Structure formats: C-alpha cells, structure tokens
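Q: Can someone sanity-check these two? First one:
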Amino acid sequence: MNTTHLHLLLNHFPIIGTLIGTGLLLWAIIKNQDNIKLISSVLLIIMCLIAIPVYLTGEPAEESVEKLSGVSETMIGLHEDAASIAMWLMGIAALFAFAAIIVQLRKGKLAKQLFIGTFIFSAICFAAMARTGYYGGQIRHSEIRSDVSAGQQNENETQKKDEMDKDDD
C-alpha cells in the first residue's frame, strides 16, 4: 500500500465521522445526555487524528496523479486549499471537544458552553470537510465536475497536448 492508496482509503472517515459526531453531539445537547456528549466528543477527536494522515498523504497523492490523463490541476489546487482550512477547523473542534471532556469530567460549570462551542466548530468543520471531499472527488472524476471546471479541464488538456506535440518536433 502506498501513500496515495492510504489517502484514498482514509479520506472518507473525517467527513462521515464528523457528520456523525456533530449530529450525535447536537442530540446529546438537546437531550442533556452527558455520556453521549462525551462519546461524541471523543469521536470528533478521533476524526481529527484520522484527518492528520489524510492531510499528510495529500501531497504524495497529488504527485502520483497530477500527470494522469483527465486529472484536473484546478481541482487539485482547490482541494488543497480546502483541506488546509478544514484541518484548522478540525483542530479547533478537537480542542474544544477535549476541553469540554476535561471540564465535564471535573464537573466544571463551563462544560455546557464548551460542548456548544464544540458543536458549532464541528458543524463548520463538517461543511469544510465535505467541501474538501467535493473538490477531491472532482480531481479524477470528470463525470461529476461542473461544466465550468470540465470546460477548463478540456482547455488545459488541449494546451498540454499542444506542448507535447511541440516537444516532439
């Protein structure tokens, strides 16, 4: 297994796991279920930890696919930028989750506010992770690209082909 395979294997976990953790945390906040708040917060921290190797294998994955036919360099750039933002948000959500767990276990008064903060950042994080996944899917899957990015990709492929033809002369 190489880094590209690892990137593709793990990249869905932070997206789906963050959605599940966020939904579970919202339910726990509404129902005031402390044990479920703790479980959902631990899940969000685990998703952050899984997101680290996903993020770190992104660059090697890019290098292995950027020269392949049908790969959109525009989408690679968008995916890369979105991943950076998503990782920062995931880190913030995990820090809030960790703080909420510690304060809850110590019976602190700020636990409720920290869980709400965790929910807010994890919801924003899910949106950022989903956006990252959306761009990531478009890197190689031209069938899901919008008309604009597909048209731009066709133009880029034509330019590459012209450059290769000139090199052959």
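And here is the second, same format, sequence then tokens:
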Amino acid sequence: MDAITLLKQDHKTVEKLFKQFEKAKQPAQQRKLARQVVKELSVHAAIEEMVFHPAVRERVPKAEDTVLEALEEHYIVKWVLSELEDMKPDHERFKAKMTVMIESVRHHVEEEESEMFPKLQEELGTTKLTDLGKKLADAKQKALRKETGGSIVEGDLASLTKDQLYEEAKKADIEGRSDMTKEELVKALAQQ
C-alpha cells in the first residue's frame, strides 16, 4: 500500500470516530470514543513525525513550510489529547475540548490531503510512495505494540490490510498463514 493511501485510511478511521462522538449522547460512550480517538491520533501522529514528515522534507523542497505547520498542528493536538486522556466525560470542558480538537484535526487533514499529498505524489511517483508506505506500515505496527504494551489487540489488527496481517503472521511464524482469510489472520495474531 502506498503512503498516501495508508494515511488517508487513517484519516477516514478518525473521521468515523469523530462522527460517532458527535452523535453520542451517553458520557460512557463519549469517553470510550475519546479514548479510541486518542489512541488512533497518537499512533498516526507518531508515524507521520517519524517517517512521513522527514521523507517529505527531504524529497519535496517546496513543502517545507507545510511540514513545519503540520508539526505545529500535531503539537497542539497532542497537547489537547493528553488533557482528554484523563478527563472525565462529565467535566464541563470535555465536550468543548473534543470539539476544538476535532475541528483542528479536520483542518489538518484538509491541508494534508489538498496540499502535501499532491506535491508528494508528483515528486515521488508510485514506486517510492509504495516504499514509503511500507515504512509507515512498519512504524505503525511498532507504535501499536507500544500503545498496547508489546502486543497488538484484535481491534487494531482488524484495521490492517490482509497483506499487513500476513506480514505480521510471518513475523510471528504462524503456520498456514498463506491459506488464511483476513479474519483468520486477525484471530491467529490476536492469540499470540
């Protein structure tokens, strides 16, 4: 999978959580969704900062200002995420803080997809974007392991592609992996 496709999938995952949060009425459901958002955005920001932004800075000279702005947006979002992580959903500022964070992330995604991604596509082409996508996928697996204390939980696995699951199964030396469906790979990896 190429880098742009992987990052756009992350954007879609987070946007779906945002919409669920905006519709949620129960504090417990809002809290659960907020925790999922914190995890997803933490991993996404980490892989962008470790792999994606350095690649863009190196290969797309005209994107320097856009990358620096993106890094500042990440900083602000991570700060808000750290506050949300321990905030109770009945706190008077919980929903307002989530709303501001959601607006900030949506702005960031819009800029990334309309400005940075097209520049990167033009500069790198398909092969280099695919190589960068593999590096991002590897970084994402490492970040997910860190988030879950060394193991990937089944919900995280379900968000991976079959190819990514196969690679994880290969690393875990799971027998019969080449004949497994995506769902079977998820279950086998979750039992590791």
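A (reply): Looked at the second one. Residues 150-155 have pLDDT under 50 and may be disordered. The CA atoms of residues 88 and 94 lie 7 Å apart.
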